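Dig into what follows:
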Amino acid sequence: MLDPQYCRQARLARDARFDGRFFTAVTSTGIYCRPICPATPPQERNVRYFESAVAAAEAGFRPCLRCRPDSAPGSPAWKGVDTTLERALRLIDGGALQQGSLSELCARLGIGDRYLRHLFHGRFGVSPKSYALYQQCLFAKQLLHQTHLPVTDVAYASGFRSLRRFNDAFKTRVGLAPRELRRRAGAPSAALSLELAYRPPYAWQTLRDFYASRAIDGLEWIDDDVYGRTITWGTTQGHFTAIHRPERHVFDVALTLNDLGSLAPIVRRIRRLLDLDADSTLIEAHLAKALPDQPLVEGLRLPGIWSPFEAGVRAILGQQVSVTAARGLTTRLVAELGETAGDIDGKPCRHFPEPATIAASPLDFLGMPDTRRQTLRRFATWHAGSEDSDDTHAWTALKGIGQWTADYAAMRGHSHPDIWLAGDLGIQKALPALHNADPQCAAPWRSYLTLQLWSH
C-alpha cells in the first residue's frame, strides 16, 4: 500500500528516483501525473495516489500532456506479485492478447480465466483485457508525442488492427482523439526515435564498460554514450541505437525496422537490455545487508542480452574460457552464420544466427573442443523445435549444459533479478568481500549482488 506522506514528499521534491513508482491524480482537474511533473503542485486535499497508470485511468483520470505518464519508467514486474501474475504480465506485454484470446493465454499459464481475472483485479483493479488495452493506448500516446508516424501507422505499431477501434479506444481511455492530441503536442523531432526514461541513479559507465568488453563486431556498436545493435523479433528485423542523456534521465533511442507491427515488444525488450525499470535505490538498500562493509556501485544495472537463445549460445561459447576468448568465438559465429543486415553508419553488420542455421552447421570454423561444438548444435536443434525453448530451467537436461550456463542465460537473457552464480570463478574470487555473510539475504536481488561482486 502507498504511504500518502511518503508520496507527498516525493512529488513536492519532484524526485526522479520515484518516477513510475506511483502516480499522482488531481481530483480538481481529472488528470494524473508523474511525480516529476513540472506543473504547479496541487493542494494535498485534491490529490490521490495510485500504484499504476492503469489504476489511475480506471478511477476516471486522464494522463497529463506535460509530464506524459506514457513515458515513465515501469515498475519491476516481480515486485509484490506472484510468479503467475509476473508471467502473465510478461506475455501480455509481448502481445499475447493482441495475437490470441484470453482462454489461450490462460492455457499457456496453466490456470483458469476466472483466477487470472482475480489476480488482475487484486493488483490493478481491472481485467486482463482492460490492462492490455490501456498499455496499447499509452504506447500509442508516446508514439504520437515523439514520432512523425502517421496515425494509421501508430495504430498498427500499437497492436490495433482497425483504425476505428484504435480511435474509439484511445478517445475513451486518454480523453482526446489521436489527431487532436498530436495537434496539441506539436511537431515531434524524428521519424522513429523515442525517449526511454529511467529512475536515477544509473551507472552508465559501468554498464557501458561491461558491454564494451563483450561487444561482438558487426552485431553491436558502442561509444562513450552510445549502445546499439542489430535485432530480430520473429520476422521483424532492424537495429537500434541508444544515446544516454544523463541530464534528463533518458536514452534517446533511434530505431530502424522492416515492420512496425512488433514495435511495442521491441521497445520493451530494449528497456530490458538497458535495465531501465530497475529501482536502484530499493535494490541497493537491500544489498547493503549482504555487503555491509563494502562500497556499492551506485545505480548498477543488469546488462541484458537480446534473447535467451543468444544468451545461451554466448554462455556455451564462454564455458571454461576467458571473456576475450568467448568474445572472439561469438564474433566468428556471427560472421560465418549471421544473416547480413547491410551497412549501418558505413559499417557492414549482421544479425545473430538463427537456431536452425547453427544446428545445420558443423561449426568447424570454431576453434574449440568438438564436445562443445556438439553441445552448441544440440542446444540449437532443441531450441528450434521446442515450444518452451526459453525456459532455462529445462536446459540442464541437455548434455553439456550445466547450472552455470542456464543461470547465466537467465540472468542476461531474461534479466532475472535473483540469480546467484555461486560456481562462477569471478564470484569465487570476490567471495571474501562478503565476510561470511549469507548471499540468500540479498534475495530477490542476487543478480545485482553478482554484478556488485564482479565489480569488486
